[in-house]
Fold this protein.
Amino acid sequence: MGRFAQAISEGDGISVVPELEGDIAELAALAEDAGAEAVAVSVRDATVARAATSLPIIVDRVGHPREVDALIQAAVEGCVTVYDLDAGEGELLDDLYPAVDVLGIDCAIEVRESADVAEVLERFDPEIFVAASARPSDDHELEHVLDLLADVPAGKLVVARPRRPIVRDQILALERAGVDAVLVSGEFFRASSDFGAVLSELTGR
């Protein structure tokens, strides 16, 4: 089990993982103080984040095997990539997943439909799934996440990716349903000038 998987499986309750946008070094330090179990960044920001925090770092939306070198250089603990056969990303994962897995980097695969779960299990059998709605404006996205959760076998880790604003009560409801972590979009924090306070509210710190 990699360090990211360990953090979200052994943490105290459900883990909150903020996506960092802006001053990565400052936000990474604030995230640690606010009770985050890990932080998510883009490929280009991974090195800056690594220098600023001891938290596990995941690189979000890794889209090509050539980005593996950047993951190695930044010594990140995980990455997220989307399984989408219509976009050709299912085939892309045939090259990307083995390359990341052999390095001991936790590769979480994002699924958006029930059929995707079965296909991903058959082709890759990942330890971590990211459950998300295919529609950014989905008013019932958390219900969709729970539907996907029901398709994931016991023993796997599930990270919810809500695209709409989320509150602590909803996070706790996801925890009760068996979700291990929530990946909170950087857009959620843009409306506030106090990243640390907003994140502390979500983590219950």
